[in-house]
TrEMBL record:
<dbReference type="GO" id="GO:0008270">
    <property type="term" value="F:zinc ion binding"/>
</dbReference>
<dbReference type="Pfam" id="PF21361">
    <property type="entry name" value="Sina_ZnF"/>
</dbReference>
<feature type="domain" description="SIAH-type">
    <location>
        <begin position="84"/>
        <end position="142"/>
    </location>
</feature>
<feature type="region of interest" description="Disordered">
    <location>
        <begin position="179"/>
        <end position="224"/>
    </location>
</feature>
<dbReference type="InterPro" id="IPR013010">
    <property type="entry name" value="Znf_SIAH"/>
</dbReference>
<keyword id="KW-0862">Zinc</keyword>
<dbReference type="InterPro" id="IPR044286">
    <property type="entry name" value="SINL_plant"/>
</dbReference>
<keyword id="KW-0863">Zinc-finger</keyword>
<dbReference type="InterPro" id="IPR013083">
    <property type="entry name" value="Znf_RING/FYVE/PHD"/>
</dbReference>
<keyword id="KW-0479">Metal-binding</keyword>
<protein>
    <recommendedName>
        <fullName>SIAH-type domain-containing protein</fullName>
    </recommendedName>
</protein>
<comment type="function">
    <text>E3 ubiquitin-protein ligase that mediates ubiquitination and subsequent proteasomal degradation of target proteins. E3 ubiquitin ligases accept ubiquitin from an E2 ubiquitin-conjugating enzyme in the form of a thioester and then directly transfers the ubiquitin to targeted substrates. It probably triggers the ubiquitin-mediated degradation of different substrates.</text>
</comment>
Length: 224
């Protein structure tokens, strides 16, 4: 019985592998994936101008029809192509392993958690992912991150001798807390989840101010 079950399981696995779609990497002229009217990436539904063979998106269909008289033919074959054409994330070198549909690549890039961050230290040209940035802070600037928890109050005491301090949230979000004497803006919530570190909001100036990290609330105090 066990032997029979094993053979049956193997047959099911083989059948599943046989049904899995085969994917390949191809190279093609990227212009073929762009609307010939607005030049933006095509996404379904795609239309074809029968008069001159122009391929246009649904937004340009009406306007192009007035130029070529016929731009209303829906091209289902191209829908399948532009809906399946995938490219690696441009931040692959920074750790993102996702392949995204070409027409959605820009949206993914704006939200990608592997987007590179710039080091806030003046004169430092380092650029890397959040994980790389934390390693760089420790190795290049001797700044070790302080782990914080969301949803609970806590106090932080920082020395004024340093220009900025690194905090890491439970979800590995990286925050910078500039010191009161720093050339950076006054202490506030900073996030390096985008391309560069930038303040999310600007509180009133002073040596002590409320600081929040998403769902957490805290108060930073500064000492010489």
């Amino acid at each position: 019985m066990q032997g029979g079950g094993g053979e049956g399981g193997g047959a099911v696995t083989a059948a599943g592998e046989a049904m899995a779609p085969v994917q390949i990497d191809v190279r093609m002229d990227v212009a073929l994936l762009h609307c010939q009217a607005c030049l933006l990436p095509l996404k379904p539904p795609v239309f074809k101008c029968e008069a001159a063979g122009h391929v246009v998106c649904c937004f340009c269909r009406a306007g192009h029809a007035t130029l070529c008289s016929r731009a209303g033919t829906h091209c289902g074959e191209l829908d399948a192509v532009v809906g399946a054409a995938k490219v690696p994330c441009p931040y692959k070198v920074f750790g993102c392993e996702r392949y995204v549909v070409y027409h959605g690549a820009a949206d993914h890039q704006r939200a990608c958690q592997c987007a590179p961050c710039s080091c806030p230290e003046p004169g430092c040209v380092f650029v890397g992912s959040r994980a790389m940035l934390l390693d760089h802070f420790a190795a290049g600037h001797q700044r070790h991150a302080v782990t914080v928890r969301y949803g609970r109050p806590w106090n932080l005491g920082f020395s004024l001798s340093r220009r900025w301090h690194v905090l890491v949230g439970e979800d590995r979000s990286v925050f910078l807390s500039p010191s009161a004497r720093s050339a950076l803006p006054p202490p506030s919530r900073w996030s390096t989840s985008g391309r560069t570190a930038r303040p999310k909001r600007r509180p009133s100036s002073g040596a002590s101010c409320p600081w929040s990290a998403r769902r957490a609330t805290a108060r930073t105090t500064w000492s010489s």
